Structures are given as structure tokens and as C-alpha cells.
Amino acid sequence: MFFSNKTKEVKTIAKQDLFINDEIRVREVRLIGLEGEQLGIKPLSEAQALADNANVDLVLIQP
To answer: What range(s) does the Translation initiation factor 3 N-terminal domain occupy (predicted)?
Structure first.
């Protein structure tokens, strides 16, 4: 799901448009936290570890 801050509307993103956890094949990601806070650019391994510790999936929205 994608939450748009401008309109407060919820949009559904098709599964084929997303890469999740082990499907992600980039070196670094711009990480956004659970509350929408910017966590910065992180190596993929660190981002995945943070997601694992929070018990959530890491989702690549735009490659």
C-alpha cells in the first residue's frame, strides 16, 4: 500500500511492481521508517537487518 500525504488517500500497488526482501537487487536503498521518517541511504544489508528487527518486510517501491 502507498499512503499519499497530499490527499490522504490509500492506493493499491500491484505486486508485480514491487520487490520485497530477497527480491531486491540493489547495493543501497533510501530508507523510510515505519512512521514515514527519512532514515537516509543505507546499504541493502543494513536496511534488511533493520526491517528484520522490526518484523516487517523491506519493500523497494521504485528501482
So the answer is: 20-63
